[in-house]
Amino acid sequence: MSAANVRIGTVGYPVRNRDRVLNNVTLVELTEGRRNPPGPKAARKLRAGSPGSVGFTVQMSNHLFEPVEAGAELPGEAAGYGDLKISRENLDLWKRGSAYAEAVEALALVLVTPARLTPSRPNRDAFAGFIEAARGGDTPVIWEPHGPWEIEQAADFAAAHGLVLAVDPLRDEAPAGPLAYFRLGPFSSMGSRLGVYDLERLADAAASFERTMCVFDTPRALDDARNLSRLIDGLEVDADLD
């Protein structure tokens, strides 16, 4: 497996020193757009101030799925947001998130759907209809479902609607395809760094794909990202990372 085909990083910035993150990863899943996406100017500033070796993916707003909380500064009517409505508010919110992603030269858009979006027929129809109405361009759309989705059910839905299913490969096998998106959450490492065995499992899973993006949202996310990179590069895992 070529290390050049694997990007490894973190969800957001797990330490206060952003430069420390950017100098040790090749991917950051940006979380600034989870509510009201920043404008393209902020994105261009971020891109210009980051190493060229670092790529970005962009979380889309959770207000596409969730009701707007009190005090949220969003244009239009609050009732137009959430529930994957094909409304002016939701479609404009998607466009703003996409514009931010384009300006930061994002490698993918990331949808993290809440547990309330169950795999019922009405929810699946609403999700499919919204994706068809909102999506434009060729940027991959990553999807991580929460709630009672079985992995096979989620994989079938993703394949039918042109989404890339995000998985934790320590729990589930990633669906076949040219691109895999590994997304490891807090329960992957049970409060500590991932060990060599689990890092080797991740490396083996990544080797099955033409391109792999792997982001950690674990308690020691930066350490896990650096250690996986070291292992793939043929170096020893460092137990003393700070």
Keywords:
242 residues; TIM Barrel; 8 strands; 17% strand; alpha/beta; eight-stranded parallel barrel
Give a summary of the structure in a few sentences.
The protein has helices at 18-22, 40-48, 88-103, 121-134, 151-160, 196-206, 221-232, and strands at 6-11, 27-30, 55-59, 108-113, 141-145, 164-167, 179-184, 211-216. By secondary structure, it is an alpha/beta fold. It has a single domain (3-232), classed as Protein of unknown function UPF0759 (TIM Barrel, Alpha-Beta Barrel).
Total beta-strand segments: 8
Shape: globular
Order of strands, widest sheet: 1-2-3-4-5-6-7-8
Identify the CATH architecture: Alpha-Beta Barrel
Query: In total, how many domains does the architecture comprise?
Result: 1
Describe this structure in words.
The chain has 242 residues and is an alpha/beta fold. The chain has one domain: Protein of unknown function UPF0759 (TIM Barrel), CATH 3.20.20.410. The chain is 32% helix and 17% strand. It is built from seven helices and eight strands. Strands 1-2-3-4-5-6-7-8 form an eight-stranded parallel barrel. Helix 4 links the parallel strand 4 and strand 5. The longest helix is centred in the middle third of the chain and has 16 residues. It is globular. The chain starts with 5 loop residues before the first strand and ends in a 10-residue tail after the last helix. The mean pLDDT is 93.
